[in-house]
Amino acid sequence: MSEASIPALVLDAFGLSPYASYKPIGSGHIHQTYLVEDGKKFVLQRVNKNVFTKPEVIATNNRIAANYLAKNFPEYLFPTALPDKNGSELVYDVEGYPWRVYPLIENTITIDFVTSETEAFEAASGFGRLTRNLNEIDCSLFNPTLDRFHDLGWRYQQFEEELASASDHVKEQVAEEIKLAIGFRYLVNEYNQLIQSGSLKQRVTHNDTKINNILFDRNSHKAVCVIDLDTLMPGYFIYDLGDMVRTCVSPVSEEERDVSKITFRKEIYDALLTGYLSEMNASMTLEERKAIPFAGKMMTYIMALRFLADFLRGNTYYHITYPDQNKVRARNQLYLLKILMEAVH
Predict the structure, then answer these.
(1) The domain that contains 232 carries what CATH number?
(2) Domain presence at residue 60
């Protein structure tokens, strides 16, 4: 199937005309997403079945959350997939890929990079509001859509396994990155102690809190709602806050090859914390507040390990456009981690 093609059976199942106009939208690398115009405007998305092998779990988790929020926070905007003609939220094409459709939320935009304290505050408060509203929901009703997604201990174990099986030639190419990654091993112990102690409350969290997973009002630039809910599942606040810190405090992305451009924007960090705590502070324990400085370090380290492990295994998970891309990403994140260790206490 081509990158810009929607199967007729999918359009028909969702009651859309075969003559509907559509075009690819979004900057995500996992799914294929289209804006469809058929009288009204819709967002139609093909789920990557190779990454999300349990799409039905995504649909079930989102439906449980939607029902709870509709009952307890009826004014809260929580995007939900529309049913097909048979009442199903997923339609499978002949290749076995699941598709889903959402109503377009008008007059909203996404942004890919944080450029102001206001954007950081709005994004963090938006993600915090989702977690706060779901604070009392029964986590046992939800199943993981990606097993052990942010389990730092497990990610380090994967790194060790890839390191043990990689050839000397491959290991030589990332010798410096391997040394740095092993040097931060103590963060795994800190993570394990934090989880095992029960200091953190398990909640339903978003788990992928990049700023482009927030819709902003086109005019006011206020956060409208959270999107990309594939990883809505049980987790800990450090996952959400940590990934915001990881992806927002530096003025450059994880793709930047020149590490001298990676810096710590304290004003952005402070805005993230202020925004997140404006929603979550009353729900957090004293022990959780003490763990705030660990969040960004933990999530930056976990991504460094994942990029490095993928390079060692031959770049089989993350999409790359040049051979050393995962090496660059790992070095980038390890450099950011060194900065965070000095800047955040």
Answers:
(1) 3.90.1200.10
(2) yes
Which of 2-6, 11-15, 42-46, 159-163 has the lowest average pLDDT? 2-6
Q: How many CB atoms lie within 10 A of CB 298?
A: 27
Once rounded to an integer, what is the mean pLDDT over residues 197-201?
96
Which residues in 159-279 belong to E strands, given as ranges?
203-205, 214-217, 223-226, 233-235
Amino acid (1-letter code) at residue 206: H
Pair 144, 94 in one domain: no
Contact 211, 123 (CB under 8 A): yes
Q: Is 2 a member of any domain?
A: no
Residues 43 and 172 in one domain: no
* CB 336, CB 263: distance < 8 Å: no
Residue 311 covered by a domain: yes
Q: Is residue 23 part of a domain?
A: yes
Lowest mean pLDDT among 21-25, 196-200, 258-262: 21-25
DSSP states of 273-295: HHHHHHHHGGG--HHHHHTHHHH
* pLDDT-derived band at 289, boundaries 50, 70, 90: very high
Residue with tokens 């997939």: 81
State the residue range of the domain holding 18: 8-104
Q: How many independent structural domains does the chain possess?
A: 2
Q: What is the mean pLDDT of residues 61-88?
A: 96
Q: pTM (2 decimals)?
A: 0.94
pLDDT at 28: 64
